[in-house]
Amino acid sequence: MLVLTRKRNESIIINDSIELTVLSIDGDQIKLGINAPKDVDIHRKEIYLQIQKENSEASNLPTNLLDFLKNKK
């Protein structure tokens, strides 16, 4: 893990296209501004992990689920 020290209004650049800026610091809370291309997904880690979990669960559904749902009518 790379650890950087930044002050308010200072930034870091990632891969020439993503800029993270420290907007404010209040106690143990930091507000970050993120400039990134529209095709880059940005999520808080807990949301990202939930998406990964749901995707994994969805991929484990039975392959005949569509047939099952069609026959339920």
TrEMBL record:
Keyword vocabulary terms for this entry: Bacterial flagellum biogenesis, Cytoplasm, Repressor, RNA-binding, Translation regulation
Domain of life, per lineage: Bacteria
SUPFAM superfamilies hit by this protein: CsrA-like (SSF117130)
Compartment(s) of residence: Cytoplasm
GO MF annotation: an example: mRNA 5'-UTR binding
Keyword Transcription carried by entry: no
UniProt key word Acetylation: no
Chief location category: cytoplasm
Gene Ontology terms: cellular component: cytosol
Xref: PANTHER family: CARBON STORAGE REGULATOR
Function field: A translational regulator that binds mRNA to regulate translation initiation and/or mRNA stability. Usually binds in the 5'-UTR at or near the Shine-Dalgarno sequence preventing ribosome-binding, thus repressing translation. Its main target seems to be the major flagellin gene, while its function is anatagonized by FliW.
Subunit structure: Homodimer; the beta-strands of each monomer intercalate to form a hydrophobic core, while the alpha-helices form wings that extend away from the core.
Protein known as: Translational regulator CsrA
Gene: csrA
